[in-house]
């Protein structure tokens, strides 16, 4: 713009009149579709108006063509539906022989389908021969599939041999695969219609207990579990799960004796030290908890004096590496353990633990001199092994329990180790929707307040409201004495709540039990 004065509309200034004349020339004679007026606003030119006018009939014709196409699709769909209805209404007969006997060539007839997932099979009488035309699904099929129930529509999960390249498949009664799970856990939609039994060597699912006929359904999971949906059986065992990222994964451990459960069970599994197991004759929070929640099994593996690595290793979160005398598991009898990385067994608690080494099941024992030995459960051929052989504790089905984790008091000087061990314990749990509470470690020594705070902050950031900060929780129960107030100011458990430097009184154990019970009851666990 030559002058660009910015004067409002209606200006008679000579410069504005000059700009207007320039813009009129652009509007009437220019080749561009748009131009800027003297106030900087974009305007359409005469060229744009002329070309748009020429395009309107073509646009109108295209719209009419699209509408006519849509009407044709609807009409065709209606015609097909009417055709199907007419064909089905032609007559339903007991079997094809009855249908052929009561129709003439060129006519249609239907017979009930033997498949539970189908309603009718449509046939054409073609010169006295019954030629199948179409199969119609039962009206109940859609309802069942929408409800997530596969057993009523003839679908079942089956295990495949590893050699086939797949682990599992969802198949119908004719062994046709709806989808397969490959060795990486990815879902594969098959390009073939039928899986050959001899080639794939199908077998019933024994390991996960997902037998043919089990009622499968899709369920929604809380996002904090890392998943949004899962396909489960009537006992809540997982066949497939969908992550929050949209990836489909499977819980397909071929050696598993127990299937993956969607949620932890009500039974409680206590991981801890003497603050859980008890000391000084006080009634512990663990013991008091039983009367505050619904009845269930309580399994306590807390051992006084143990550090967090020892505790979580006994829970199966870690393996301890053992070296055996002669690097050999003998045919029978005990063999001395000459070296170990984690002391699973200590002076307190059980002096034995069952588990597996190099595929051999047996018992690890501790003697009074703190030496270890391993004895296989069943006699067999000697098994040569190398040094530092992994020993995996057998915790049975407790991996599916609700875990209450209160560890770290005996190694509070190593906060990074405690954080690692808490995370390992949570990761060791088997279900997708894990039920657990983390009770952060405490101290009666102000020199370790900073370590407690570090662990509390990390745990809260990592596990949100699954974390119970026992140290901070204790402050409200101080008795108002100078000593208690000094302890609160120092960030440690008030001395009136302790029987010694660290262990709680029955009163404070009871308060912890009330806190834990409130969380369990609030969450419906």
TrEMBL record:
InterPro entries hit by this protein: SGNH_hydro_sf (IPR036514)
Molecular-function GO terms, alphabetical: hydrolase activity, acting on ester bonds
Taxonomic placement: Bacteria, Pseudomonadati, Pseudomonadota, Gammaproteobacteria, Pseudomonadales
SUPFAM superfamilies named in the record: SGNH hydrolase
Protein's UniProt name: SGNH hydrolase-type esterase domain-containing protein
Superkingdom of origin organism: Bacteria
Biased composition (Polar residues): 1-10
Region of interest: Disordered: 1-21
